[in-house]
Design brief:
- By secondary structure, the chain is α/β, with parallel strands linked by helices.
- The protein has a single domain, classed as Rossmann fold, CATH 3.40.50.
- It is about 40% helix and about 25% strand.
- It contains 10 helices and 10 strands.
- The protein has a 6-stranded mixed β-sheet, sandwiched between helices. Strands 2-1-4-5 form a 4-stranded antiparallel β-sheet.
- Helix 3 runs parallel beside helix 5, helix 4 packs across helix 5 and helix 9 packs across helix 10.
- The longest helix has 18 residues.
- The chain is globular.
- The two termini are about 15 Å apart.
- The structure holds adenosine-5'-triphosphate (ATP).
- This is Candidate ABC transporter, ATP-binding component.
- InterPro entries: AAA+_ATPase, ABC_transporter-like_ATP-bd, ABC_transporter-like_CS, P-loop_NTPase.
- Keywords: ATP-binding, Cell membrane, Membrane, Nucleotide-binding, Transport.
- It holds the Pfam family ABC_tran.
Length: about 270
């Protein structure tokens, strides 16, 4: 896919995010620009507190920036939110807990059931399709969240995020807290869903393996804006202290191994 010529799914222009405390003003984003095109998997990386999660929440319409514009699928975010963001944007929250009193299937079906436009049988069928899509088995449908592994909880949350078939998926630390095997399995699932559903994905992650396995492009947040964006290979070569520490510091060995392993993909 040549993302350069694809339609813009997210356009962020001159964004300012400011938080106020008594007598103080914290500028998190200052004139931040970012465009995400259809079919891309854009990973946002940055130091702690650089406003990665705030940015995802603003794209979703859960928080309003102080200034600037965010358009999702051509519409300003406020309007997207009013028209039902769930049908346009799926979100996998880092601590996206499931409803503990609901079964797996009820959790997956929840956003669709809330719409109150479809008969229960259709809602159930749609949720079963998504349950299979994320690699769970029909016999998992009636399990309760307390009986699930960490990897299964992520899969249920992902199925719930996809229940309305959104073209855009936001992921906040998708593999955080998973053991290496579950993490690998979840990354493989995300990669096949991206390919098979033609999703556009924006992800925040600190995990280099997840980053390299999934990203078509990386955007680095520092100095209150996106300081560099491009394919992983280009971003790694960018001269900046954060980029150097993040990609080539203690974890640099792994980065170099991946560069040797996948010379044409990253
Ligand atoms: N509602 C809020 N009110 C005040 N400050 C906030 C609010 N939400 C976020 N912040 C502050 O904005 C900054 C950016 O927060 P955010 O959670 O987006 O960072 P992050 O880049 O995701 O960090 P991390 O990698 O540590 O998760 C932090 O300093 C945070 O304390």
């Amino acid at each position: 896919m040549t993302a350069g010529g694809a339609a813009a799914v997210i356009e962020i222009r001159k964004l300012w995010s400011v938080f106020h405390a008594p007598g103080r003003r914290f500028v998190i984003h200052k004139d931040l620009d970012l465009t995400v095109r259809a079919g891309e998997v854009v990973s946002i990386v940055g130091g702690s507190g650089t406003g990665k999660t705030v940015l995802l929440r603003q794209i979703l319409g859960l928080e309003q920036p102080e200034r600037g514009e965010i358009r999702v699928l051509g519409e300003p975010v406020g309007r997207t939110a009013r028209r039902g963001a769930a049908s346009r944007i799926g979100m996998l929250f880092q601590h996206g807990a499931l409803f503990s009193a609901f079964s797996v299937l009820e959790n997956i079906a929840f956003p669709l059931r809330e719409l109150k436009t479809l008969p229960p049988k259709l809602v159930r069928d749609a949720a079963m399709v998504k349950l299979r899509m994320v690699g769970l088995k029909p016999e998992d449908a009636d399990k309760m969240p307390a009986d699930l592994s960490g990897g299964m909880i992520k899969r249920v949350a992902l199925a719930r995020a996809l229940i309305m078939d959104p073209p855009l998926l936001l992921l906040d630390e998708p593999t955080a807290g998973l053991d290496p095997d579950s993490s690998d399995g979840f990354v493989r699932l995300l990669r096949s869903l991206h390919r098979d559903l033609g999703l556009t994905v924006v992800m925040v992650t600190h995990d280099l393996d997840t980053l390299y396995e999934l990203s078509t492009r990386i955007a680095v947040l520092a100095e209150q804006r996106v300081i560099v964006t491009g394919p992983p290979r280009e971003v790694i070569a960018f001269q900046h202290p954060f980029v150097h520490d993040f990609f080539l510091g203690e974890r640099g060995q792994r980065a170099m191994e991946l560069l040797r392993e996948y010379p044409f993909t990253i």
